[in-house]
Amino acid sequence: MTMECLNAKSSAPQILSPRKWRALRTLETVQHMNAHLLGVLASLAKADGGKHPLEIVNRYRDRWLDLDAPMIQRAASNPVLLLNVHFQNEDWWRWAMRGRSGTWRNIRALDAFPAKIAGELMRAALMLAWPTAREDRHASRLLFGMSSAVAQLVGALTAPVIESIASRHSRELRPRWEDLPTFWESLLDAAQSGDDVRLREVHLYSLQVVASELCLFRE
Q1: How many whole angstroms separate alpha carbon 36 and alpha carbon 124?
Q2: pTM metric for this prediction
Q3: 97-113: pLDDT as tens digits
Q4: How far apart are CA 5 and CA 10, in angstroms?
Q5: Which are the contacts of 42, defined by CB distance < 8 A and separation ≥ 6?
Q6: What are the domain boundaries of the chain?
């Protein structure tokens, strides 16, 4: 242990002065987008009496139908964007930035959203992610679950390229963690229960999953 560490341990603890997180406004916009997404998913559950391509809509249809505006706002307070556009897939982003059409590696997933809604959500997500990745890489990793490599690519985008990607590849937009239905069950249950402790637990779980995913990519 260095002398500096010894001195630091022996000295009285210092209280750090509070500082405003510069990405706070971005977090607020992320939560606003989450509210819009949750409203869309609730509408899909109401409009589609049959089987929807999204399992989280089918499995928890009753919960979606019971959501009201205050519940949506509670669920939307999650600190991570509940949408994902291959934010950990550097190869996909390099492919999409070359203006390619079609699907990456000819892999076609079922559409998560109607085309018009998908386009609107995709543009909004990318227009929010773009300046965040350019100005605050740490915030882009936390709020969007981006790998460092993807954050670098997204930060270097231009408005025309964003429009091209959004118009060509909005079908690639997915709800985050759609393969973790227990996350969505916990989120909806916490929002409907009005239990702040349960809601904070879901928030912490979201951040833990993001950290785990980034570790897998050696972030």
Answers
A1: 11
A2: 0.86
A3: 998 777 777 666 778 99
A4: 9
A5: 64, 65, 67, 72
A6: 24-216
